[in-house]
């Protein structure tokens, strides 16, 4: 979303570095040094704020941001200091946005009414902790809805409210007609309740096959674009796009230069009409799935799955990624090759790999052609 590049290209393939034996905690000097080394990777590729800067754009970061300070990402201002020694993780002070009001982002908009700006609004909602206001929670505490589910639903509404506040402020500031708004989410979520079936040792508050999963519930989430007078109202549930498309789309829209080799396509060509565009000629989209932590010494050491979707078919190839510390979450992986017909089986319940060897081979060739590093070890 910020580089327009795949994780295996820029090398930021997880959040925290994996702690080595002997490290005592997150304040351990060796761990902090590994954090710093991971954060350095944000400098390898231009970010969207840096690519917009030559056009006169100021940029502001709020909410989730793992890659050091806001300035490390090329933002001209922001809420996150990103210093691991001071608890800089997830986004530190930036995580107050939304949950504790919208003052920082509305002030930024007000100070740039006559200037081009880029705003990164990434609130810690509906992320845990699920602590919605009582005025919202009471609507969902009804018979038949588990309390944990009610809290999650209320947090979704809380997030919706903050988005409404942001859109309303664009209107009141008089900049809505010349502002492109893009909505994208980082993963799907199924709330775990007492009735949820989970594997032995499962410690997560989400259900299996949702967050931290390459399955459809984990990766198939909506992308929405609003540009009054320029993007006609339209809903498309059949054209599959990727968050990697957002950087080239926005750069094209504002007349910026798209770096050579960027893998995404412009989603807004010909006013959103797909026919005759780069989007129409796309053969497949791709994804890569890692364990939460970064090893640093080997970017692909925690690679768990590569996947591709082409037409109705989805292929997942499982790899021998190191899952130390995450055995309960990923320890059940044991099927090397999975093939699903998403039109007939959108919940990926019937693996057709053995019945469709031709499709497996076709999709695997696409996957390997897309993948830049040397082919990693596979469960065979």
Topology:
Blueprint: H1 7-10, H2 29-39, H3 48-52, E1 58-63, E2 77-78, H4 103-110, E3 117-122, H5 134-137, H6 147-172, E4 181-184, H7 216-219, E5 223-226, H8 246-253, E6 285-290, E7 303-310, E8 313-318, H9 327-330, E9 337-341, H10 357-370
Parallel strand pairs: 1-2, 1-3
Antiparallel strand pairs: 4-5, 6-7, 7-8, 8-9
Your description of this structure?
The protein is of the alpha/beta class and 380 residues long. It has two domains: 7-272, Alkaline Phosphatase, subunit A (3-Layer(aba) Sandwich), CATH 3.40.720; 285-370, Arylsulfatase, C-terminal domain, CATH 3.30.1120.10. It is 23% helix and 12% strand. The chain is built from ten helices and nine strands. It has helices at residues 7-10, 29-39, 48-52, 103-110, 134-137, 147-172, 216-219, 246-253, 327-330, 357-370; strands at residues 58-63, 77-78, 117-122, 181-184, 223-226, 285-290, 303-310, 313-318, 337-341. The strands form three sheets. Strands 6-7-8-9 form a four-stranded antiparallel β-sheet, covered by helices on one side. Strands 2-1-3 form a three-stranded parallel β-sheet, with helices on one face. A hairpin with a 2-residue loop joins strand 7 and strand 8. The longest helix has 26 residues, at 147-172. The protein is globular and about 60 Å long.
